[in-house]
What we know:
It contains five helices and seven strands. It has 151 residues and is α+β, with helices and mostly antiparallel strands. It has one domain (10-150): Trna Endonuclease, Chain: A, domain 1, CATH 3.40.1350. The chain has helices at 11-22, 27-43, 79-86, 106-115, 140-150, and strands at residues 46-52, 61-62, 64-67, 70-75, 101-105, 123-126, 133-136. Strand 1 and strand 2 form a beta hairpin. It is 38% helix and 21% strand.
Amino acid sequence: xxxxxxxxxxxxxxxxxxxxxxxxxxxxxxxxxxxxxxxxxxxxxxxxxxxxxxxxxxxxxxxxxxxxxxxxxxxxxxxxxxxxxxxxxxxxxxxxxxxxxxxxxxxxxxxxxxxxxxxxxxxxxxxxxxxxxxxxxxxxxxxxxxxxxxx
Length: 151
């Protein structure tokens, strides 16, 4: 699928929230920014994963990246963010050059990601790049509880 052919998304919202976090002048403001960021992310209906395994959807599996020698689940808020990360890399493209990605319902994605801890996956990285953020898998349940408690 060609991400540029998709309707506009809320990707700028996540960039703006992360930019605010980077510019936070106090620990309290930083925490507020990250709560807003996580709340918006956890409110998405689907999470986007780049896939490997070719263009056959039956063989596609979400991409696990290695950063600093540790495996991380790479999650994106929308296909455009996934395309920014993937660049022109052929491993994330089909024969026609279209981006290979999977849109997974949030609850299914959460269950899958939390199950990765037993496989040694360190955590999840969201929108990896200039406006990305991350969390170790061990911290994810507490983040979810904290955000749900704010609502």
